[in-house]
Specification:
mainly alpha
């Protein structure tokens, strides 16, 4: 499933992470077990409203853009902070469900980062 990481369906997800989606993500992370870094990243994002998450993530992408160029087709590598990329990779490698992995990408506003 890690091959799905770079596929268009993970870039063009037209969905917002609902409260139930976030709850499922956090429950599966607790059940499967993730690194403290990943737990802290998604835990801190989970308490923010969708608008606040978007604002935070847009600030991050603007900061990244100031430092380096992002290839238009490679936002999952170039458009994320190292900690964010590592967290998504951890979810992929540990075999989390597609729904949970999509929720994680929604919480990081991957689609909106690609648009920018």
């Amino acid at each position: 499933m890690a091959g799905l990481n770079n596929s268009p369906e993970f870039l063009f997800i037209d969905k917002d992470a609902t409260t139930d989606d976030i709850r499922n993500l956090l429950e599966e992370m607790t059940l499967v077990g993730v690194s403290d870094q990943t737990a802290q990243l998604f835990g801190s994002l989970s308490i923010l409203s969708p608008v606040d998450r978007l604002s935070l993530n847009i600030t991050k992408i603007v900061s990244i853009l100031r430092e380096r160029e992002i290839k238009s087709n490679d936002v999952l590598n170039d458009g994320l902070l190292d900690v964010e990329r590592d967290a998504l990779l951890e979810l992929d490698v540990q075999g989390f469900t597609d729904d949970v992995r999509i929720t994680a990408r929604c919480m990081l506003n991957v689609k909106e980062r690609w648009i920018i």
